[in-house]
Write a structure and sequence with these properties.
Oligomer: single chain
Structural class: alpha/beta
Helix content: 40-55%
Number of strands: 11
Strand content: 15-25%
Shape: globular
Order of helices and strands: HHHEEHEHEHEEHEHEHEHEEH
Radius of gyration: 22 Å
Distance between the termini: 51 Å
């Protein structure tokens, strides 16, 4: 079994398309198909159900995927360790990030990392499913590190440390009936329409759990994936919404509404406990700690 075959298998499993996998790998599609067929013969099982319309993992393929990712991660780590024997950090590290990262100035820390380790590369990624997507990607090896907002119990298999905390700000249009209030409870918000982020985003999870914990439900007819759109919709009176206070502080056209019991939002730095960090990932972790120290000083 070759690492090349495993990398082709993982690409097809993640893309669920031989065409997209070949484009991602920058090889011809026939080479990907040939490698997958050879791998299936070697393991003695079909890894994909495929026809002209769809590609899906079989039970054997689903069982093989996490192990294949682990094997590829171990191979990368071994290569980076050998390359770094001279003390020079090489290789690539994938890091997940969020719209708000609080005390962690991501561009600044990446700039410092690049200057200190010119032969290492960082791939910075967002997830459409927010922090929940980052957790899955870290656990299955698609990301080395991630900044994620963890509401509730930390998933098994994650090492985490909180790197920033702040309140969520409740925002409303200036002419909204709540705008002049000196304080509101969750119960008073239950009948309101909300502008919020997709399920899986940390701030959405925090607010949903707060309402559920109080025995309340709420309506979220408007889902967005960026702060600018959220602000614009709230400004038009189409709903109220919760945003991290650091992001909300500079927004024009909306006003904060004090919450009787503030919702505390946090960002954690996470990585998997089942796999050792590669030298490049460990170096980036040190840069995050350096960034926190620089912010404090």
């Amino acid at each position: 079994m070759e690492l090349r075959q495993l990398s082709y298998f993982v690409a097809v499993a993640e893309e669920l398309s031989f065409t997209r996998a070949s484009q991602r790998l920058r090889v011809v599609q026939s080479a990907v198909s040939t490698a997958i067929r050879a791998l299936e013969r070697e393991v003695g099982a079909e890894l994909f159900d495929r026809d002209s319309r769809r590609v899906a993992l079989t039970a054997a393929g689903a069982a093989m995927l996490p192990e294949a990712r682990t094997a590829l991660a171990a191979a990368r780590a071994a290569a980076q360790a050998a390359a770094g024997a001279s003390g020079e950090v090489r290789g690539a590290v994938t890091m997940g990030t969020l719209l708000s990262t609080g005390r962690v100035n991501v561009p600044r820390l990446l700039g410092r990392f690049s200057r200190r380790h010119p032969h290492a590369a960082v791939r910075l990624q967002y997830s459409p499913s927010g922090s929940a997507g980052h957790v899955r990607a870290v656990l299955d090896g698609r990301m080395d590190l991630a900044l994620a907002s963890l509401a509730g119990k930390v998933p098994a298999g994650l090492a985490h440390e909180i790197v920033t905390e702040e309140d969520l700000s409740l925002l409303a249009a200036p002419d909204h009936p709540l705008a002049s209030r000196s304080g509101v409870t969750l119960a008073e918000l239950a009948e309101e329409s909300f502008v919020d982020f997709p399920v899986g985003w940390g701030n959405r999870t925090l607010v949903d759990r707060a309402f559920a914990g109080a025995g309340l439900s709420r309506q979220v007819p408007l889902e967005v994936s960026d702060y600018g759109t959220a602000r614009a919709l709230i400004c038009q009176g189409l709903g109220i919404g919760f945003l991290p206070s650091g992001a909300a502080g500079n927004m024009a056209g909306v006003v904060p509404v004090p919450l009787a019991e503030p919702l505390r939002w946090s960002v954690s730095l996470i990585h998997a406990t089942a796999r050792p960090l590669s030298p490049a990932a460990a170096a980036l972790l040190r840069e995050v700690h350096a960034e926190l120290g620089a912010e404090v000083s």
